[in-house]
């Protein structure tokens, strides 16, 4: 066995000189032998070091003077001492052969301890930096986290004020805390987590998924949390409705994952039923934890309760057989006698009884199946009353009362600052992890939901009967509501169902899923949201979940220029003052990289206050139309100066929206940004290849940039809400005066 390392050196030499695969394979073999040899000698040494008559834990605990072992509590290695016996590893069988697992880190805690022992911390917990993380849907975890924060802030002797962070809004990248750990000089960190449990899909699923992914990712350190001083979890739940294993099950999972990732449990998991015990019980846990922080009692370590046996088997069985993945977690947890709710159970993305469902339906969304949504936008209502369509009518000829706005995936991989759904929106980085509805169900459900909402409009004053009748034959579908449509695994089949009914498809994606984008079939218009021109700004605006978000965006731009160049492609820019309006040159770089057919520039709209929904925007961040105009003119100048032919083509001042188009859409001096929809379906059904110029139509004069109407269709009636309100107020006052006079 001892020849592993010399053989490694020899093989490296063979590889360098031969340049062939032989040396490569030999290196792997030699490395394997070298590791085995080291492990064998380590085990042998520890057996030799262990004293012949070892004291068992009962003796230790029963004896008057506890033999307390001075163990550096922050050390990442452990040398067995007199109380230690080495257990025989019991190999676990995993379900299937897996790819080899690479372990980079030393084991952080004494996994080879069979019996309990006492260890003395050589670190003062009061010198640490405490982080209190929480996530909440209905506010109780935030309240409890706040109480914990207040308690620790007022704790005598705590060297650093504790920091309280929402996992949803304050932690943009979970890796910053749960793969790396904060660097505060010599100060070590303590993580406290206040977590509710939700049987339905919630952001906690995403957090737990991150922990399990980190643990199972062979490319990264397996025990990243060993650099913490420790952690503790306080779970909130409802033991009446979710009793037994389900009670606080996600806090239990978090507690276990943090331990598996190398964290040291400082305090037992708290489980509080908010229905019966409520905040006083949470206060008890907080009080006890605060007492512990100030207490230098030794720590009792009993490794029997650690479920992480997968590490031990590495030493005994074939590497390829040992990787325990998320699906196996459920079994392991079952074996360990705690909760049986594994993470593999596919949940509904938006279950009927979930807060997300309530929040979405309250906002007027109809939830279709378990992951899709449909909503009538205000422009559809406006068009039904003859008061004008949205900017898509001005730019592309879409009549708003014939348009259905829907999404087959309410989840997405960003937490954009201008999205109102923070805290409740389902999120996922890459994989679809929910129950999946078939495309037919989504399609029929979306149409049914849309028509139901249209029908409900029948009594609204001002509805024009002809438009009302027409509205029951949807002609366009905007796949842009919220969430990320290309995340839905059956998006192509869904789009096909639309096209079969001659419903045009306007699909907006967030440029975070290049693989899905590359596979997307023909759509009528393909949008990519460009929310910022640089890596730093994009991180600020979109708060993406993927750490390689910028590379993903760049890959999407390349795909637009290459694989998807047959599509009619559009950049969608949402301008947010103070976030993304400055760097015109970088926007130009992106346009040049992707070469989109057109660029839609829209001023952000204000969607709620900054305090309630995690949305940091205020009215100060909403640009005026004049500022948007200035932006597009500068962008066009920049592109032209670099030899790229784009011009400002159309505008819809009413919704602060402007269209820049490639000059190929200016045919014989006339803009052709509108779409010939019958032609699109004719070409699609012909099976021939076609591109963005093959189904264009002339843009009406009233929509062209600089026209007097500034994009407002002269056939519609302008409706000035403020003027109308004032008129009604004056009418009321007049009536009241008349009544007074007649008395
Ligand atoms: C839809 C829904 C599902 C829930 N599922 C569970 C569950 O599986 N286990 C549990 O112990 N509590 C469950 N609860 C109770 C919540 O965890 C509990 O009310 C908690 O205090 C909510 O915390 P928050 O206000 O911070 O969101 C559920 C509550 C709701 C509304
Ligand atoms: S991409 Fe859309 S749905 Fe997703 S967070 Fe951003 S704005 Fe919201």
Automatic annotation (TrEMBL):
Catalytic activity: N(1)-methylguanosine(37) in tRNA(Phe) + pyruvate + S-adenosyl-L-methionine = 4-demethylwyosine(37) in tRNA(Phe) + 5'-deoxyadenosine + L-methionine + CO2 + H2O
CDD domains in alphabetical order: Radical_SAM
All residue ranges annotated as the Flavodoxin-like domain in the record: 130-290
Single GO biological process annotation from the record: wybutosine biosynthetic process
Cofactor section: [4Fe-4S] cluster
Signal peptide: none
GO molecular function: 4 iron, 4 sulfur cluster binding; FMN binding; metal ion binding; S-adenosyl-L-methionine binding; tRNA-4-demethylwyosine synthase activity
Pathway terms, separated by semicolons: tRNA modification; wybutosine-tRNA(Phe) biosynthesis
First-tier enzyme category under EC: lyase
Domain of life: Eukaryota
Gene3D superfamilies: 3.40.50.360, Aldolase class I
InterPro entries: Aldolase_TIM, Flavodoxin/NO_synth, Flavoprotein-like_sf, rSAM, rSAM_sf, tRNA_wybutosine-synth, tRNA_wybutosine-synthase
Keywords: 4Fe-4S, Iron, Iron-sulfur, Lyase, Metal-binding, Nucleotide-binding, S-adenosyl-L-methionine, tRNA processing
Listed EC numbers: 4.1.3.44
Residue intervals of the Radical SAM core domain: 396-645
Family according to the record: Belongs to the TYW1 family.
PANTHER family: S-ADENOSYL-L-METHIONINE-DEPENDENT TRNA 4-DEMETHYLWYOSINE SYNTHASE, S-ADENOSYL-L-METHIONINE-DEPENDENT TRNA 4-DEMETHYLWYOSINE SYNTHASE TYW1-RELATED
Protein name in the entry: S-adenosyl-L-methionine-dependent tRNA 4-demethylwyosine synthase
